[in-house]
């Protein structure tokens, strides 16, 4: 899928932006697509403000699609990569050199880390507090080392929860958690 409503809200909050609006009339709508529909030229993505790579094997992307995603970022696009349980998928991705964080493992978030995510990502939701474990389900985080040219947008202790890396005219945004998986959905 190229976008998910929760991801767009998270991307806007993470990079400090106002709600994303189209140049025309009203708010942009998320676009979902199978990985085989990812364009094989970067200008096929230019209409998207943010492309979100969900939990699928990135090795399934064709070389033209990989080049298109790299070109999209270099040309000014924002690529968002959710973490979560499947850190190996990210570590073995043909796009791994773009990530702000080099993934090495996944593990459950601490209550302090969950509180930071809830405060930033779910602020204003009725009945949720920083101590809420989101219905008791564990929040899984990708762990790794931050690349030298990346910056942390949200952290808890020394753990980056949201990191960003500028590449060319664009950027790659990575969340340690996956907002499209339980307990977020």
Present the secondary structure layout.
Elements: H1 5-14, E1 50-52, H2 63-74, E2 78-82, H3 87-91, E3 101-108, H4 111-121, E4 140-146, E5 150-156, E6 159-167, E7 170-175
Rg, Cα atoms, Å = 16 Å
Structural class: alpha/beta
Portion in strands: 15-25%
Give the total of beta strands.
7
* Widest beta sheet: strand line-up: 1-2-7-6-5
Question: What's the shape?
Answer: globular
Order of helices and strands: HEHEHEHEEEE
Low-pLDDT regions:
1-8, 15-32
Quick structural gist:
With 185 residues, the protein is α/β, with parallel strands linked by helices. It has helices at residues 5-14, 63-74, 87-91, 111-121; strands at residues 50-52, 78-82, 101-108, 140-146, 150-156, 159-167, 170-175.
Question: How would you characterize the overall build of this protein?
Answer:
Helices cover 21% and strands 24% of the residues. With 185 residues, it is of the alpha/beta class. It has a five-stranded mixed sheet with strand order 1-2-7-6-5. Strands 3-4 form a two-stranded antiparallel sheet.
Top keywords for this entry?
alpha/beta, 21% helix, five-stranded mixed β-sheet, two-stranded antiparallel sheet, disordered N terminus, 185 residues
